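Design review, sub-item: ligand-bound model
Attendees: FS, YL, KQ
YL presented the inputs for the manganese (II) ion complex:
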Amino acid sequence: MELKPVNNTMKAPESNFTGDVYVTPIKQTEEPSRLIVSLVRFTPGARTNWHSHAVGQTLHVTEGRGLVVNRDGTVIRMRHGDTVWTPPGEEHWHGGTAENFMCHLAVLEGTGDGDGTTWLDPVSDKDYNGANVG
Ligand code: MN
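KQ shared the predicted structure:
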């Protein structure tokens, strides 16, 4: 066994995220494993762009309150302890609520030539605010 070093936390790129989001890698692909695990911290109002994952993604909330939304308008409100699965190819976004931080573990599998994520358009303020109502 091996105690792994703590990885540096990186600010998530503006090209794929809105607002302040910080990513700490926990597990990166290392053959033969394809497992990728990251701790992702969203400040209030921050969110991913729309995107999908080639072989799906499991989100497990460790702190705060957040949202996961898909293209048909389904909104899942999640809080610490909750786990959400997004199936392969399903376009979605996730982030903190307008008034709360949200930290989640993101668990997914690489595809051999990357992490299998297809990044799309940013989530507009209108769509984000709409998902926060109710
Ligand atoms: Mn995702």
